[in-house]
Amino acid sequence: ERIKWNFTKFLIGQDGKLVKRFAPLTKPEELTDEIEALLR
């Protein structure tokens, strides 16, 4: 999918592959649970 704006966020795994993509309007603090789950 095309990147619509430069504030699109990507969660990348330790293997360098895309885990999840977030919309530009997603606030960074909304990503906390996703990031913590990936670190477990």
From TrEMBL:
This is Glutathione peroxidase. InterPro entries: Glutathione_peroxidase, Thioredoxin-like_sf. Keywords: Oxidoreductase, Peroxidase. One of its GO terms (molecular function) is peroxidase activity. PANTHER family: GLUTATHIONE PEROXIDASE. One of its GO terms (biological process) is cellular response to oxidative stress. Belongs to the glutathione peroxidase family.
